[in-house]
Request: fold
Amino acid sequence: MSKSTPTDAELEVLNVLWAKGPSTVREINEMLSQEKEVGYTTTLKIMQIMTAKGLLERDESSRTHVYKPLMKESDTQRTMMDKLLNSAFGGSASKLVMQALGNNKTTKAELDEIRKFLDDQLENRKGDRE
Amino acid sequence: MSKSTPTDAELEVLNVLWAKGPSTVREINEMLSQEKEVGYTTTLKIMQIMTAKGLLERDESSRTHVYKPLMKESDTQRTMMDKLLNSAFGGSASKLVMQALGNNKTTKAELDEIRKFLDDQLENRKGDRE
DNA sequence: ACCTAATTACGAAATATTTCGTAGAACTTC
DNA sequence: GAAGTTCTACGAAATATTTCGTAATTAGGT
Reply:
């Protein structure tokens, strides 16, 4: 049983929900409209499908339904990462990480942060099998 | 102009080509068949489409055509990384990296390798704006 | 009550992707 | 050179995703 990743349109909806918290279709559609042309019923339909799939849950107590995501952002990120890792990087996390940091305009602050994180990780492995 | 990412089926073909070098449809199909059921003409069609899209080039000098990728593996990895970065991580490479390394069973050897890489990166930024 | 605006439900078209069958050409073998 | 095998071309079905129009319902204002 491996989790499925949301489609592109679904992910856009999720991003708004994770950022703003539970929202109505209109609220989501207004956010998305700032980025691109998208009809109200298009957003509605996507969200209805997501609800049917179990990606969202909705509160129908008022006429205007309020939706919220059923998965945590970090879990979804992990699932999508794993997919990319296996499909494009042969499962090698180090290759992926180096690609992510390589030519990119990652800031020094970010690099420092990652290094700190890495030191922690290494620390926590004291005693592991090498 | 932002590059487009290959579809799942296309990526599977590319992975074989990057690993094995220029190959025939039969060779690709045999590799893919080790992983999953897939008909010969299915693989053929995918590769024909990829050629039409400019993802592959083929040598037709012999009856059995020989295909090779037109993009480097690393460029494709980067394009796919960027897409994931922007669609699921709000553009934050550090979040992505930490997600990749976090709960994962990344080996100590890999972590060491990444740290080395990171030190190089930081070294190369001496004199950058902080 | 009537009109208008907002909302949901639903079907279906449009697009993208994946799969495969069939036909015909090119090569092999006997 | 006939029969069988391997290959490409092509169309089309199957599936997945995205988009939107229309109809019905509800709420609010006048």
